[in-house]
């Protein structure tokens, strides 16, 4: 039996909270009474989200965050810990993708994907992890992608970053398991979010999963934390498209 009420008062930090999966998850967690620390570079978007969360009974703290900047990530974690005392959950949802065959992929795009997706996830784990170890409990959800396990022509840079995130996540699972900290790799197939807005040509998003589906699965993962550890979960749209 899922106890959604059990998330009331839990402190949950979300990177990439201004749009897409992160924002939808924050909106849902707000209705469940969670304390949210919301991070992204879009402070106006975060402020609007925080207002919505507070209106439905949650608490929300919007914090400027650039996951590629170590000082910014350290500050994000410090603000969360100072404000709420504990951090129960970290959701790493900040991510970007650009698509081109590897021979055509601009080096700057490759660097940026590695920086946001891989280094950003590393930094957030690095600065929230010690607090969770000290508490003796915590959950880290890394939003990877199915592209972290399969080769997608045209998605080489994105896949490289996400294979990296999956590797990092699996190691962290082993390192933190005995500390009571659950680290989960979430591998979605295609999700209809703003992720695809800048992609030319824009793919058909009509059969992708809605962000609300992902948000519900994430909340389920957090609510089902009953002593068993969920290491990895793949969530696919009905047609199995990527
Ligand atoms: N959409 C999909 O089909 C899909 C499928 C599988 C996995 N995923 C993964 O799921 C995660 C969320 O994707 P989404 O679909 O929600 O994408 P989205 O709608 O484009 O949202 C991406 C979020 O990442 C944030 N972000 C980007 N660069 C950042 C930076 N340097 N520092 C802090 N935040 C940053 C953005 O905020 P700002 O721009 O405001 O900073 C935004 O809130 C990503 O890791 C993505 O790779 C997506």
UniProtKB/TrEMBL annotation:
Keyword NADP annotated: yes
Q: Which Pfam families match?
A: adh_short (PF00106)
Q: Which UniProt keywords apply?
A: NADP, Oxidoreductase
Which SUPFAM superfamilies does the record match to this protein?
NAD(P)-binding Rossmann-fold domains
Show the PROSITE patterns listed in the entry.
ADH_SHORT
The family note in this entry says: Belongs to the short-chain dehydrogenases/reductases (SDR) family.
Name of this chain's protein: SDR family oxidoreductase
| Organism expressing this protein natively | Alicyclobacillus dauci
């Amino acid at each position: 039996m899922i106890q959604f009420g059990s998330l009331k008062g839990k402190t949950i930090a979300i990177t990439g909270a201004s749009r897409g999966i992160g924002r939808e998850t924050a909106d849902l967690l707000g209705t469940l009474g969670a304390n949210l620390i919301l991070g992204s570079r879009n402070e106006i978007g975060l402020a609007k989200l925080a207002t919505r969360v507070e209106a439905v009974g949650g608490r929300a703290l919007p914090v400027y965050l650039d996951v590629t900047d170590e000082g910014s990530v350290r500050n994000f974690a410090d603000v969360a810990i100072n404000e709420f005392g504990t951090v129960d959950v970290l959701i790493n949802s900040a991510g970007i993708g650009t698509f081109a065959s590897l021979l055509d992929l601009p080096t700057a795009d490759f660097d940026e994907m590695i920086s946001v997706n891989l280094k950003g996830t590393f930094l957030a784990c690095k600065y929230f992890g010690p607090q969770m170890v000290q508490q003796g409990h915590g959950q880290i959800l890394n939003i990877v992608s199915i592209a972290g396990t399969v080769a997608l022509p045209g998605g080489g840079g994105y896949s490289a970053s996400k294979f990296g995130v999956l590797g990092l996540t699996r190691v962290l699972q082993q390192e933190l398991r005995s500390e009571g900290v659950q680290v989960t790799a979430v591998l979605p197939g295609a999700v209809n979010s703003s992720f695809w807005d800048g992609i030319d040509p824009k793919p058909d998003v009509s059969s992708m999963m809605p962000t609300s589906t992902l948000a519900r699965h994430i909340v389920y993962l957090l609510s089902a934390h009953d002593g068993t550890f969920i290491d990895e979960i793949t969530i696919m749209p009905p047609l199995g498209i990527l």
